[in-house]
Design goal:
With about 80 residues, this protein is an alpha+beta fold. The protein has two domains: about 35 residues, no CATH class; about 35 residues. Helix content is about 65%, strand content about 10%. The chain is built from three helices and two strands. It has a two-stranded antiparallel sheet. A hairpin with a 7-residue loop joins strand 1 and strand 2. The relative contact order is 0.08.
Length: about 80
Amino acid sequence: MDSATLTGVLDRLERAGLATRSPDDRDRRLVRLRLTAAGAGLRDAVQPVVAALNEEILGPLGAEGAAGLHAGLRAIAAARR
């Protein structure tokens, strides 16, 4: 994601009460993102669904095929930077 897209996503997470942003105490260039209790609860509820979906999609590839797919996607993302 480019920074403008990421900023929009973070703005929406904050407005929904799912996350907060705060400046880093030691490095002014950094902003810390933290889940609120509501955000953590949502994450916990979604994790099993994500795990099942990953298994459904990646399972047929096997461990080696899934690793190859991840490597390929990382290479594509790196090339876009």
